[in-house]
């Protein structure tokens, strides 16, 4: 093979001898194109699900006990009754897991039965049909294994199956039957399902269809053999990309020509990298190939021609063909070998952190169980030995002490097994299922435009939502709406554009602003029609760019008017926007790789400067009705290093050669011919645009002398042909022509975020959650979004780690970044995908990267592949042992969603793969705030307390039974009736823990959202479910069990029972059971944070359930002791009241002391909420000196009053795209530190966070008018400590706290 690749795919060419064995069977195998994201199949569901459930130590223990009880001597009950509870628990869990996986199967079936086209009556020669006898088949298989050249696989390949009508109806992607193929007919192509597509197949993709497998393009409907593809489900980019087939195969336009084409493709091994591919297409040629070595196999003796292939010649699975009628290509990778699937990973089995932590605690319970059992057996040995020495009527003298001790040990394990509650797991499953209902039914997370609410797909990890430490987010479609709109421009020193942005509209009457904008737009349209009736202008859609003075200035025919025309002509020429498919003005739609460029060109079109198309050598414009054809000479494309784009054209009207250049302000200003007042004015306008959160580009041009251009063009052509250091040579040549530019002005575009994203991220950061953005987008776009969504702050120094093929450079950049961190301050890190690839190839680099990321306030990884996203998540999760959440909306986010502890999919515009692979599905990013801070925190609180109370009440019951062994010779005798022993967990004490797990909450929804810092205090070290807290519950259980056993037992020994009642085991056992049940339920009530009417009523009913049980049991079992007489005795109720007081009084005293002398943050917040004390606002106003003020000594009150004027104030309860923003805010310098060049530069051209200063809100107006404010001295005394600890208020400029 050539180029050292591992795959050779033949097209209409017989397999050579090197590719088959002596029996004619091929020596290679490829995976099927059928994909599977589910975990189970019908065959492996039972064993695999049982294995996952047996990872719970308690389940293993109960299986052991069931087996143990089949031994007759240890049969306390029929083993069947022991099997039923465990079987019920495991059945419910299995049904739940099966239902979740069924949804994944349905999605897989939906996709695998999609439609594509292959030639009729055509065979794929990569899979020769070989009929082997059994003898030859075995010999062939042995030869296969011994050759060790390719992976073994069964060689009898399946033929194509005819498509079934039922399968066609469920196909997810079917093109319209009317779309023509083969010049107007569908003849020659037949339908097949995606799952039957194989490597080497020739397939035809139609417009708007998804690509079923990674394929090399042979030909397209375009004359330049190009096509346009949308890859947003792969890399998150919504812009169209150009892909191109080799010119040598462009002639293929029918199925017959495709069947006649011959060739083979050498390709690299499958890789998840979306931006790289290396391959060679070899076709027959009349010219002999003299470059082959003697050892290389010759496929076409008459001659061969080799054509190099790269990623631009490949269509990837999951991409969608756009603006192209058809594409014919050869399948190269299928199924799990495709790049999108390689980057997705396997579907994991997720278990919550509490569930994992329960295993050590269950082991601890085992230690207690076996410890008590051994103590019981050991003491029984000495007691039984003593009994054997004297005549004792109640023992079997035939048993030896050892034998009786063994029996006692086994019976003690069975008797005390209640310390490991079998009903715990099924109770937790039911509680989490109800949590699912709470989450999915939350109207605040309902998205009306799509009629969608939050969908819970994995029930078992709701408590993990309350422990999240890191959020990893995609950008495109997750944070943004993918809508770019042209809002402002500055031309020749004058600003145009008055339409409001998300930032400028803050605090204003939006209805009045929109009404004024409508008037201006109407006036502007009339002005436009007076000059030129633009047929391309839509009458239905509102204009994104409006200004009533623009056309007034344009009509003056002066120098400024010419600058305006030149400016928008520049905008219409300097871009890479695709030619519209339809020339009809009604269907005139642009497609662009960059949404910024599409916005610019669309606005120019609306204003009469229409880009109508392009070909290889020309650009076609219609300038206010006049058709102008510019000769296209060169396009110098934009990249993240150049930060600019240039187009060189020749004006047909005067034959002038002009270079139009646009780019970042600092890049363009360095290349201006000279700087004057106009350039300084424009720079000031750029500052204003940036302060409004707009993305800016400078527009410049230069007339080039023909002689200069000819010399430069020759050098440019030579540089583009260079085989080594091509990019560096091209950039060097481009520097020679992009100089001495004349500034025309600048554009400003609004990149709209989803509603509420800045506020949501600000709240998550306040809650102690770190947010990392992982995107496949470009560096500049990622940074702009980082500023706009409040992730990056204007006082941050951004550490930029650039791509490099030299690992030493990467190491040096990381060392430089660490050095900057040592200087102190606020930092953010931006790292590019290629640099990240080098980082993950070296363990030392990974440690350095993680160290930098943890110490930075924000991290953005741009240009990353899906596999890299999951690697970043895995690095943080495994090395920091942190709880991670990933959120995204495209197929490129599936791998990181599955890698994280919690995966959240956004049901957006990029397909359903992210949603189907996630644990939770929401429609908007802003819903994440309530999902975590309210539902997540409540679920964590409820599940943690529920589990601990479950262990607690079972320990009380177990220790009571152990204490009774002191009085029966440690013979492992049960003090209770067997029904009481069995019903304790099923009936008498199950509802209180269920109430805790379902209804309990410590603070209200409003408080949880207004003070997000309490989320940080709760999740810190997962404080609600720790070993320390578990041991405290154990000690409390020991104490309560002593009280519950001692009081009734001593009461019976003291002769307190009524006359005629003997102190037999059943009677005393029932009295002790009554006390134990009541005490356990009252203690559960004390562990609740909120006593609502419904929950408290249920617990009280459960507490007195024992008194309802006694008459019922008496009816079925006459031997049940009659306690009615006992209930009439005051001593019984006095003892019960005493037991309750002794149990709950210490808890009351301890809590009171803690709240008085060392209150926790949560205690203070609860007191403030209960007493209706005003909360400090989440974002406090700091003193801000206006840059326009005449003196810096201006009083604070006057500054604040100017900031919180009616014009700039917005209520906090109103959630828009951005928090309130004051236009008087003084902005500190934003800067980037390039660790590669070790230089720091201004970041003026980027949009930044909408707000870091919030207008002060008059919270006094929100007080409850009917309830007077009550001030608790203790709460007020501790409030400042709480806020300072979590930075819940902001310090003013002079260091004092508000």
TrEMBL record:
Residue ranges occupied by any P-type ATPase A domain in the UniProt entry: 186-277
Enzyme Commission number(s): 7.6.2.1
Region of interest called Disordered, as start-end residue ranges on this chain: 1245-1285
GO molecular function: ATP binding; ATP hydrolysis activity; ATPase-coupled intramembrane lipid transporter activity; magnesium ion binding
Domain of life, source organism: Eukaryota
Domain P-type ATPase N-terminal: 28-81
Compositionally biased residues, Basic and acidic residues: 1254-1268
Group of enzyme by EC: translocase
The protein's name in its UniProt record: Phospholipid-transporting ATPase
């Amino acid at each position: 093979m050539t180029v050292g690749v591992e795959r050779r795919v033949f097209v209409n060419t017989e397999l050579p001898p090197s590719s088959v064995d002596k029996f004619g069977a091929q020596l290679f195998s490829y995976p099927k194109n059928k994909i599977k994201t589910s975990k189970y199949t019908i065959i492996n569901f039972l064993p695999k699900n049982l294995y996952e459930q047996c990872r719970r130590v308690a389940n293993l223990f109960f299986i052991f006990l069931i087996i143990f009880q089949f031994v007759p001597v240890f049969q306390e009950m029929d083993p069947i009754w022991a099997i039923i509870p465990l079987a019920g628990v495991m059945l419910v869990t299995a049904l739940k897991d099966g239902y979740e996986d069924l949804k994944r199967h349905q999605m897989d079936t939906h996709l695998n039965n999609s439609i594509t086209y292959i030639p009729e009556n055509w065979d794929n020669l990569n899979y020769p049909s070989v009929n082997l006898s059994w003898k030859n088949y075995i010999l062939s298989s042995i030869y296969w294994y011994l050759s060790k050249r390719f992976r073994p696989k069964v060689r009898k390949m399946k033929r194509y199956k005819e498509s079934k009508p039922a399968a066609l109806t469920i196909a997810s992607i079917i093109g319209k039957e009317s779309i023509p193929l083969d010049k107007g007919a569908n003849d020659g192509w037949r339908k097949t399902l995606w799952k039957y597509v194989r490597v080497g197949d020739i397939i035809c993709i139609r417009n708007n269809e998804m690509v079923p497998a990674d394929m090399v393009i042979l030909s397209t409907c375009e004359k330049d053999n190009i096509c346009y593809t949308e890859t947003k489900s792969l890399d998150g980019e919504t812009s169209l990309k150009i892909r191109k087939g080799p010119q040598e195969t462009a002639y293929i336009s029918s199925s017959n020509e495709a069947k006649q084409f011959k060739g083979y493709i050498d390709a690299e091994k499958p890789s998840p990298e979306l931006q790289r591919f290396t391959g060679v297409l070899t076709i027959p040629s009349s010219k002999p190939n003299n470059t082959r070595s003697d050892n290389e196999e010759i496929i076409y003796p008459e001659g061969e021609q080799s054509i190099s292939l790269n990623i631009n010649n490949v269509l990837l699975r999951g991409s969608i063909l756009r603006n192209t009628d058809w594409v014919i290509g050869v399948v190269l990778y299928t199924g799990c070998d495709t790049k999108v699937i390689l980057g997705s990973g396997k579907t994991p089995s997720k278990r919550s952190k509490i569930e994992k932590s329960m295993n050590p605690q269950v082991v601890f319970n085992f230690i207690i169980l076996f410890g008590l059992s051994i103590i019981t057996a050991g003491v029984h040995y000495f007691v039984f030995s003593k009994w054997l020495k004297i005549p004792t009527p109640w023992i079997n003298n035939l048993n030896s002490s050892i034998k009786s001790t063994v029996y006692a040990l086994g019976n003690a394990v069975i008797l005390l097994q209640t310390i490991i509650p079998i009903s715990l797991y099924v109770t937790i499953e039911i509680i989490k299922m109800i949590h699912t209902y709470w989450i999915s039914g939350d109207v605040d997370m309902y998205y009306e435009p799509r009629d969608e609410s939050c969908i819970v797909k994995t029930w078992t990890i709701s408590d993990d939502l309350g422990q999240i430490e890191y959020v990893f987010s995609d950008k495109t479609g997750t944070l943004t709406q993918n809508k770019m709109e042209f809002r402002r421009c500055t031309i020749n020193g004058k600003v145009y554009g008055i339409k409001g942005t998300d930032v400028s509209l803050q605090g204003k009457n939006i209805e009045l602003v929109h009404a004024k904008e409508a008037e201006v737009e109407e006036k502007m349209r009339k002005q436009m029609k007076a000059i030129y009736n633009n047929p391309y202008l839509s009458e239905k859609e509102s204009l994104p760019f409006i200004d009533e003075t623009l056309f007034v200035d344009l009509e003056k025919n002066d120098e400024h008017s010419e600058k305006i025309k030149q400016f928008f002509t520049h905008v219409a020429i300097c871009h890479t926007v695709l030619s519209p498919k339809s020339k009809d003005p009604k269907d005139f739609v642009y497609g662009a790789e960059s949404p910024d460029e599409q916005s610019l060109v669309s606005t120019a079109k609306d204003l009469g400067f229409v880009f109508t198309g392009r070909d290889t050598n020309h650009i076609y414009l219609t300038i206010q009705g006049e058709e102008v054809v510019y000769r296209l000479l060169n396009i110098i494309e934009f990249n993240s290093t150049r930060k600019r784009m240039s187009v060189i054209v020749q004006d047909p009207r005067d034959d002038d050669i002009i270079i139009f250049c646009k780019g970042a302000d600092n890049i363009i200003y360095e290349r201006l011919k000279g700087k004057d007042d106009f350039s300084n004015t424009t720079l000031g306008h750029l500052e204003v645009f940036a302060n409004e959160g707009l993305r800016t580009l400078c527009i410049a041009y230069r007339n080039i002398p023909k002689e200069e251009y000819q010399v430069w063009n020759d050098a440019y052509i030579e540089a583009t042909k260079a085989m080594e250091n091509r990019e560096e040579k091209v950039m060097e040549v481009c520097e020679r022509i992009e100089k001495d530019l004349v500034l025309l002005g600048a554009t400003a575009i609004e990149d709209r975020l989803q509603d509420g994203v800045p506020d949501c991220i600000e709240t998550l950061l306040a809650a102690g959650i770190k947010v990392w953005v992982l995107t496949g987008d470009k560096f500049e776009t990622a940074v702009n979004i980082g500023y706009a969504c409040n992730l990056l702050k204007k006082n941050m120094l951004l550490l930029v780690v650039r791509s490099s093929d030299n690992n030493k450079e990467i190491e040096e950049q990381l060392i430089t970044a660490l050095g900057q961190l040592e200087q102190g301050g606020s930092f953010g890190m931006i790292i590019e995908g290629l640099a990240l690839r080098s980082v993950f190839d070296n363990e030392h680099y990974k440690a350095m990267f993680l160290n930098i990321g943890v110490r930075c306030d924000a991290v953005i990884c741009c240009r990353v592949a899906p596999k890299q996203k999951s690697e970043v998540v895995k690095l943080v999760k495994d090395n920091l042992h942190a709880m991670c959440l990933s959120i995204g909306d495209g197929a490129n986010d599936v791998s990181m969603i599955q890698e994280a502890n919690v995966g959240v999919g956004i049901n957006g515009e990029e397909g359903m793969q992210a949603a189907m692979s996630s644990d939770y599905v929401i429609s908007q990013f802003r819903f994440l705030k309530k999902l975590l801070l309210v539902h997540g925190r409540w679920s964590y609180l409820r599940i943690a307390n529920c589990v601990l109370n479950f262990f607690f009440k079972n320990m009380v019951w177990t220790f009571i039974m152990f204490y009774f062994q002191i009085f029966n010779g440690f013979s492992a005798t049960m003090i209770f009736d067997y029904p009481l022993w069995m019903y304790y967990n099923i009936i008498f004490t199950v509802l209180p823990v269920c109430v805790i797990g379902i209804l309990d909450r410590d603070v209200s929804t409003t408080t949880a959202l207004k003070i997000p810092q309490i989320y940080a205090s709760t999740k810190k070290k997962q404080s609600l479910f720790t070993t320390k807290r578990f041991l405290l519950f154990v000690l409390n259980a020991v104490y309560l069990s002593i009280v519950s056993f001692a009081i009734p037992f001593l009461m019976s020994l003291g002769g307190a029972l009524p006359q005629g009642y003997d102190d037999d085991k059943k009677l005393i056992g029932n009295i002790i059971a009554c006390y134990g049940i009541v005490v356990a339920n009252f203690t559960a009530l004390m562990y609740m944070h909120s006593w609502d009417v419904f929950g408290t009523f249920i617990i009280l009913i459960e507490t007195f359930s024992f008194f309802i049980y006694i008459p019922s049991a008496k009816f079925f079992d006459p031997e049940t002791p009659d306690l009615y007489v006992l209930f009439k005795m005051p001593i019984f109720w006095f003892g019960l009241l005493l037991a309750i007081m002794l149990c709950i009084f210490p808890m009351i005293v301890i809590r009171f002391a803690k709240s008085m002398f060392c209150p926790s943050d949560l205690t203070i917040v609860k007191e403030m909420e209960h007493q209706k004390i005003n909360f400090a606002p989440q974002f406090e106003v700091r003193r801000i000196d206006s840059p326009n003020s005449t003196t810096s000594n201006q009083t604070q009150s006057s500054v604040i009053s100017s900031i919180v004027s009616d014009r700039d104030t917005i209520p906090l309860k109103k959630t828009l795209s951005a928090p309130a923003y004051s236009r008087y805010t003084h902005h500190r310098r934003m800067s980037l530190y390039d660790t590669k060049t070790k230089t720091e530069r201004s970041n003026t051209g980027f949009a930044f966070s909408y707000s870091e200063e919030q207008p002060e809100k008059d919270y006094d107006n929100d007080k409850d008018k009917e309830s007077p404010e009550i001030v608790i001295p203790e709460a007020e005394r501790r409030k400042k400590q709480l806020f300072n600890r979590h930075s819940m208020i902001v310090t003013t400029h002079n260091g004092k706290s508000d």
